[in-house]
Write a structure and sequence with these properties.
By secondary structure, the protein is of the alpha/beta class. It contains eleven helices and 14 strands. The two termini are about 25 Å apart. It binds pyridoxal-5'-phosphate.
Length: about 375
């Protein structure tokens, strides 16, 4: 086993920041109260949640009452989409989204189809970008929700969400943004984004796993998806994960404090990776050349399987990702790459490298020195 893992899978998850852990620790040990209890220990827990909510609201430029804490990004997406859908059944049954969303959105829409909802999947271009005009054209008198991601988790393309939000606002259609990949990397001002609902997940920005955030603009009617107590203003029953909530807020605050310093560094590392790896014959950048997440370098290599690249990188202690998913023994190419119009064979050879604040120039040097050889070897083996 190599001495140190070169971790290049920050879109999958990130390590908890040590300062965030420090902020969380008291809520596992001395401050273990239930936030619903009226004695001092309970009130401390509630104060910690209130303060976390204020910190998050500050970054999203919204009211603290518009923030709900959930159990993950997937839950935030589910609550936003099902919550609006089931609360708006009298108004209509039509949802607009894109074919490149995360499964937390796609599978939620598919689930709703069982209850009579209908989904329109907007086309995307070869970079994975939605044309905002298509959103306007797809809206009907039955439309109750538009859901478009801020930035794609596989190829890093940033969507024109503020413009889409402007169109939705003009037609009075609620607009949900899955901002799980954008959290900690792109501006989250919900006013500037014209967002009515926005999902985040703490483990993507050096916070704990198992904590999601949902912004829901005042006046949005959401049917709760968990029945029980009246926590989170009745939007999400269940005893609050106080330590997790404190960690999520502290991680979000740190990410935006450090953004001006961290992002230019990541962009420089990303651009070195892209320029270096595109010199490999038969390599293609996937996603938009400039409108992409600062940490995302993703590619397709002709004539090989992404999974084989991953296994070879893993032997060298390098963690990366491919868009392909292993289902029942066969490897399916990524739905995102196929929606972008990539040929199936090429989509099989996808590799996603996502940088984080711990990565160095030396990490990039290592990738640039080992990857061309791995690809040549795999091509020699026939993929
Ligand atoms: N949405 C996007 C765009 C994601 O990338 C992810 C996770 O990778 C999710 C939603 C789900 O978040 P979580 O893992 O917190 O459920």
């Amino acid at each position: 086993m190599p001495e140190r893992t070169i971790y290049l899978d920050h879109a999958a998850t990130t390590a908890l920041d040590a300062r965030v852990l420090d902020a969380m620790l008291p809520y596992f040990t001395t401050e273990y109260g239930n936030a619903s209890s009226i004695y001092t220990l309970g009130r401390h827990a509630m104060q910690a949640i209130d303060s976390a909510r204020e910190q998050v609201a500050d970054i999203l430029a919204c009211r603290p009452t518009e923030i709900s804490f959930t159990g993950c990004g997937s839950e935030s997406d589910n609550l936003a989409i099902k919550g609006i859908a089931f609360a708006s059944q009298k108004k209509g049954n039509h949802i607009i989204t894109t074919p490149i969303e995360h499964h937390a959105v796609l599978h939620t829409c598919q689930y709703l189809e069982r209850f009579g909802f209908k989904t329109t999947y907007l086309p995307v271009d070869t970079y994975g970008r939605v044309n905002p005009d298509d959103v306007g054209r797809a809206i009907t008198d039955q439309t109750i929700l538009v859901s478009v991601m801020y930035a794609n988790n596989e190829v890093g393309t940033i969507e024109p969400v503020a413009e889409i939000g402007r169109i939705c606002r003009a037609k009075k259609i609620p607009f949900h943004i899955d901002a799980v990949q954008a959290g900690g990397a792109l501006p989250l001002d919900v006013v500037a984004l014209n967002a009515d609902l926005l999902s985040l997940s703490a483990h993507k920005f050096y916070g704990p796993k198992g904590v999601g955030i949902l912004y829901g603009r005042q006046g949005m009617r959401l049917l709760p998806q968990l029945q029980g107590g009246s926590q989170e203003r009745g939007r999400r029953a269940g005893t609050e994960n106080v330590a997790g909530i404190v960690g999520a807020a502290s991680a979000l605050r740190l990410a935006y404090e450090e953004l001006p310093r961290v992002m230019p560094r990541l962009i420089a590392l990303r651009d070195r990776l892209i320029a270096g790896l595109l010199t490999i014959p038969g390599s293609h950048l996937t996603g938009h050349p400039t409108e992409r997440l600062p940490n995302n370098a993703s590619f397709c290599f002709e004539g090989i399987e992404g999974e084989s690249i991953l296994l070879n990188l893993d032997l060298l202690g390098i963690a990366a990702s491919t868009g392909s998913a292993c289902t029942s023994g066969s490897v399916d190419p990524s739905h995102v790459l196929l929606a972008m119009g990539l040929p199936v064979e090429l989509a099989h050879g996808s590799l996603r490298l996502t940088l984080g604040k711990g990565n160095t120039n030396e990490d990039v040097d290592t990738i640039l020195s080992v990857l061309p050889g791995i690809i040549e070897k795999l091509r020699g083996l026939g993929g």
